[in-house]
Amino acid sequence: MCGIIGYVGKENAVPIILEGLHKLEYRGYDSAGIAVLNEDGFMVVKQKGRLSALEARIKDHPIRGYMGIGHTRWATHGEPSDINSHPHLGSQKRIAIVHNGIIENYRELKEYLEQKGVAFVSETDSEVIAQLAEHYYTGSILDTVIKVVSVLEGSYALGIMSIDHPGTLIAVKKDNPLIIGVGEEENFIASDVPALLAHTNKVYYLNDKEIAVLTRDKVQFYNIDREPLQKSPETITWSLDSAEKGGYEHFMLKEIMEQPRVLRDTIQSALGSGDNRRIIDSFDVAAFNKIVITACGSAYNAGMVAKYVFERLCRLPVEVELASEFRYKDPIIDSRSLVILISQSGETADTIAAMREARRRGACTLSIVNVVGSTVARETDYTLYTLAGPEIAVATTKAFSAQLALLYILAVRFAGKLGRISRQQEEQLLAEIAVLPEKAAEVLENIEAIQKYASTCVGYKSIFFIGRNIDYAIALEGSLKLKEISYIHSEAYAGGELKHGTIALIEEGTLVVAISCCEPLYDKIYSNVEQVISRGAKVLFLGNCIKAAPSEKLAIIPLPKTNPLFSPSLSVLMLQLFSYYVAANKGLDIDKPRNLAKSVTVE
Ligand code: F6R
Question: Is 48 a catalytic residue?
Fold first, then answer.
């Protein structure tokens, strides 16, 4: 996810673009850049780091122009650096672009252009767009853009300027958002409404493969066949503050709701033609006799879920270790061990230390990371990226879901490579993973019941989570989410363990959240539910194989059917929503819970 903005009009574009980029910083913040076009040609400033670093450079070396494009980056191809920052220019410096999205066929396009003598300067997929535009340039910028997008595969929202067309800004999109703002003698493009609200509330929404041609005085729309389109503007009624969170009260809720898209992108990168796919295809899992997963907090919980999936499918022993413990336990690993590190930030000190310990002992390291170019990503032998985009809320939601998706795919592909499952079984399992985004969307379309139930739960001092098998693993994440944002004490237990001690804590009015997505174990978990109800507890029962009827003490929220191995991806959505709405009803600072930081870079 990145943020783009463009301006053409009567004012100096630079302050307008910088101000817009501030509103888009939630979409990416590892580097930023701006290009303006004036009588001297393109003036470009690009800077790794936060937007403030770009602003400082522009303050020292001011630029100006009546048309410009800006970008705030969240790296996906090529580490955050000045060179990899946008805007990108073609080698002849005649076309400049900003891009949000992923060009899946960029390698073949790059090879094609390199054979024609084009010299690339960055490691990004985006540069290929600027180079292609110069290569195909016909004298008509509109025709050129049509030609370029006809060969691009993947997703894009683009702002494009040509030195031969000062005063004409082009916008086009596919599978990533782009809006056109209309002002008085000025027009805008942006990834999202907040970037424009200070200037206009009149916007056009671009549909896929529609092209907008903006000048200072008008905006014209075309389809990909160059036929003019008539579109009607919409009036935005949002306040600036609410717009930044896309209308949601908190980033956490916004990020929960983004999960179908995040799952789709991440799954596509591993099953389609993305970089993740290439790494998984070439990975020689037969070289290992065991897998060790190590991580912290929620990422550790993703590892706990993965253990069930890997062991069931690959028949390889899997150990899951807390990264903070790993290096102190004299771990039994060697060159036959595959150590998987999971981290959203890639900068968690304990995970970095575990990674270095694993490497020191000769193990092969594979990381699952969200932040491109982070320490864990750089130092492991192999890196798979979750395509969750920047996560702003401290409590992880969408990055966790993306981690699960990659872990499932790894487990299925490894099982196939090891010959533990047939080709047909492998395809069937991957097909079930591929439909998870739709099922996630279905869960998120039906949130009223959990919202209502959670509003009755603010008074609890302690809440228990139970499940069996993989439902137990995801119960751990439900419990962590609840305690970190609602400050309610909570524990997760394997249902069968209750009778070995915990059941002593159950009394009149205790709340137990039970999860049931493993049909063969339904009777077992239901018997645990009955045991706690008979001791006075109330139960919130979430699952896709529940046969019991609701009662005064038993609330039931159904989930869509899926293979039990992948069901945590659906149950976790309900668990995240439960925690979110409990905390929201307590009026807490959900995005920044007390005592916590997003990235824990100290031991
Ligand atoms: C919980 C949460 C934390 C992180 C943990 C690891 O919601 O976000 O438990 O999962 O601090 O962080 P990363 O994944 O950045 O290594």
Answer: no
- Residue 522, pLDDT > 90, answer yes
Lowest mean pLDDT among 21-35, 80-94, 554-568: 21-35
Query: Could you list the residue range(s) of the whole structural domain that residue 316 is in?
Result: 245-443
For residue 586, the tally of other CB atoms under 10 A from its CB is: 15
396: Cβ below 6 Å to ligand 1? yes
Instruction: Indicate the number of domains in the chain.
Output: 3
Q: Would you tell me the crossing angle of helices 568-585 and 436-444 to the nearest 10 degrees? A: 30
Of the residues 216, 238, 260, the one at which a domain ends = 238
* Mean local confidence (pLDDT), 275-280: 94
Q: How far is the CA of 348 from the centre of ligand 1 (A)?
A: 8
Cα Rg for the chain, rounded, in angstroms? 25
> How large is the average pLDDT for residues 362-377?
93
- Residue 235 near residue 204, CB atoms below 8 Å: no
Tens-digit pLDDT profile for residues 119-141:
999 999 999 999 999 999 989 99
Q: Ligand 1: which of 348, 474, 594 to mutate, judged by most atoms within 8 Å of the beta carbon?
A: 348
Residue 126 near ligand 1, beta carbon < 6 Å: no
**CATH number of the domain where residue 576 is located:** 3.40.50.10490
Residue 259 has pLDDT above 90, yes or no: yes
Does 598 map to a domain?
no
> Torsion angle of alpha carbons 32, 33, 34, 35, nearest 10°?
-160
Predicted TM-score (pTM) of this structure: 0.85
Q: Is residue 597 part of a domain?
A: no
List alpha helices for 25-105, DSSP H.
51-60
Does the C-beta of 301 come closer than 6 Å to ligand 1?
Answer: no
Mean pLDDT value of segment 525-552:
97
